[in-house]
Model the fold of this input.
Amino acid sequence: MKPKMPNYGRVFQGHGKPKERAVFAAGLWKETIADLAERGSLTAGLVKTVDRYVRASTEYEFLYPEAMAEGPTLTAESGGQFANQRWHAVGKLNEQIGKLEAALGIPAKKPDGEAKKAQGRASAADDYLD
Done:
């Protein structure tokens, strides 16, 4: 099965940095499709899931730096604070990406602390000593 890659140039047209987003998306698409094909898991249904995964991951990659620079709250001209919608969107995209990765069989990335525990750490004191 040779799936047809969506035209990510059109998908991200009108977004900030559309060409960079399209290049990132195309690379992620090829990498994910190749991984599924190598594992023998590539199906027509998963091709649609790969597309959703690529779109969400691309948005995340380009929104994350902006959201981190701005922080969870913004200051209004009047001096009050309000919630940063980019910050919220990045959190939701992260959740969605996790679910899509699970559907695609992509192993979850463990935080550094859990990676050390998986290596056979003996006690909780090891976390303190590190």
Q: What stands out?
A: Residues 44-70 form the longest helix (27 residues). The CA atoms of residues 94 and 125 lie 31 Å apart. Strands lie at 73-75, 81-83. The helical segments are 8-11, 18-39, 44-70, 85-104, 112-118, 125-129.
